[in-house]
Amino acid sequence: MSDLLPTITTRWILDQRGPKNSVDPAIPNGYFVEEEVSSQGDLEAVATILLTNRECPLRCTMCDLWKNTTDNSVRPGAIPGQIDHALSSLAPTAVVKLYNSGNFFDRQAIPRADWEEIADRVRSFRQVIVETHPRMLDGVEEFQSLIAPAQLQVAMGLESIHPQVLPRLNKQMTLDDFSSACARLLGVGITVRCFILLRPPWLNEKEGCQWALKSLDFAFSAGVECCSLVPTRVGNGAMEALEAAGQFSPPSLRSMETVLSSGLRDGRGRVLMDLWDVERFFRCPDCDQRRVERVRQMNRHQRSLPPTKCEAC
Ligand code: SF4
Ligand SMILES: [Zn+2]
Q1: Nearest ligand to the C-alpha of residue 68?
Q2: Per-residue pLDDT, 154
């Protein structure tokens, strides 16, 4: 593990930022339907709505989600309006993700006054997935009751269980916080998915893979049902500064394949590799596309596939 340079503080992270993008609280940042393998092993269409709302109050070292957020809380009614806007254009699906670039149960982000109207719009789905920080679960049981009979799943960032990396990610969370959140959710029948970083800052390629797998193991032991592996990337200022200081390098496509393949072998739950913007990880014209295709097929079929061979690299 590399030495820490510079010292990571909230002030330092904020000082590295560029400007935010301009966003409109009347419309979501994005909405689309994508294919995802279900916990039963079937491929199904999932609607994802990226809600426009107030920035998360935390300042994680690797986070770039603040770029498409507002400085102030959105007015009551804006979030249900955004959901209407998205659902009116999307094909029908059984699963919907309401991702708000932060914490769904942060009332400065999603006004409590909107919960009933949100529930009215998503109750007909089989499953509703929201994201939040493990220490921001205020009212989660109530929201689950409101959306019934839809099943709630909560997505939380575990990021990395590396004992030095997790505090440096400025997530303001301990592993006990994560485990306690899982126990609380599972205790009331809410399922959990989590995000795990592949090669966060301060780890070399090999360590980045090893700790992703250890984090996966921790997550499944805590009762997580689906682990989404996220290749760590630049894009928020802080990560560029760490890269320039030799404290961060993005993972290779080969590592994405290896970690996904190993993670799937245990069969403890779903393991997915996030392929969003994967072109930024391309290094070899001969095999990049084939590696991505292998990852895509492993995501889809939830089993390891023969390794990619490349004469060039
Ligand atoms: S808790 Fe999530 S949204 Fe908030 S800063 Fe951290 S990674 Fe970003
Ligand atoms: Zn190659």
Answers
A1: 1
A2: 99
Quote the CA–CA distance of 144 and 65 in Å, as a whole number: 25
What is the number of domains present in the chain? 1
State residue 94 phi and psi, 5-degree precision: -95, -15
Residue 52 lies in a domain: yes
Pocket test for ligand 1, best of 60, 101, 131, 228 (most atoms within 8 A of CB): 60
Q: Report whether residue 102 contacts ligand 1, using a CB cutoff of 6 Å.
A: yes
Within-domain flag for 183: yes
Smallest Cα–Cα separation from 86: which of 150, 158, 33, 18? 33
Residue 247 maps to which CATH number?
3.20.20.70
Closest atom of ligand 1 relative to the 131 alpha carbon: 2
CB burial of 273-303 (b: ≥16 within 10 Å; e: otherwise) equals bbeeebeebeebeebbeebbebbeebbeebe
Which residues in the chain show pLDDT less than 50? none
Measured in angstroms, how far is the CA atom of residue 55 from the centroid of ligand 1? 9
The answer to whether 105 and 118 have CB atoms below 8 angstroms apart is no
| Assigned domain for 313 exists | no
Is 4 part of any domain?
no
What predicted TM-score, i.e. pTM, was given to this entire model?
Answer: 0.97
- Ligand closest to Cα of 197 equals 1
* Structure confidence at residue 4 (pLDDT): 58
pLDDT attached to residue 3: 60
Our answer on whether the CB atom of 63 is closer than 6 Å to any ligand 1 atom is: yes
Residue 266's pLDDT is 85
**Residue 156 is part of which domain span?**
10-301
Dihedral sign for Cα atoms in the order 278, 68, 107, 136? positive
